[in-house]
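Shape matters. Shown next:

___
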Amino acid sequence: MVFSSRIRTFMLVCVIASIVPAVIFGEPRLVDGQHGGDPWRNILFDFQTLIGGGLAVFAAWWTVGAMEKADQAAQVRHNQIIEATVFREKRALLRAEHHMLAYTKVVRQICSRLTSDNIATIRSKGPRVLTTVYNNAITFVSRLKRGFAHEDWIQAAHLLEPEMIAISMEVETVCDQFLLFSPTQEERFAPDFSPTEDQFEWLVGNNSLLVVHLCEKLERAMEGWKIV
């Protein structure tokens, strides 16, 4: 594009240098007998219509070239803006993904232990272990639920596809269900706290398995996030 612009400028200078001096300073043709005068000036006046048409074509070519150059510059600026926007959106997705995966992986590990087969083993280790397992499950499921209100997730929310939105809502719903009968944080961390049979049983079985299943589903969906 720079080379083409230089060619147009050089041609314009040549045209001006060949026409203007001859018209202004060339010897005019004598009217009597139509002879004499500057030959180049005579040619310019004899073919002025043709030359004018050529200059008009040259001007149009110059204008089109300038417009193409302006369009290309505008396209470059547009691409730069798009790249900057995509970069910000990618960062938002990566932050949201990293933030949410940190919770889902821990929740899966904890809730996968809350099965009917493991109840007897957990209880056999005493009330302290039972309370610790219970509090860990409640704590990290609560953090997972709050993760959907985290700034990183909110910034990426407008990038979510309908399928991801549906999965996110499912995870939030199952978290609410999992925490339905949980005591407050102050009660859970009181020195004499121990979960009741009903409270512990509520976490075991279908509720814990559903949490694990939906966390895995959410993780698979996040692996497919991309900016088009």
About this structure: The two ends are 30 Å apart (CA to CA). The longest helix spans residues 48-111. The chain is about 80% helix and 0% strand.
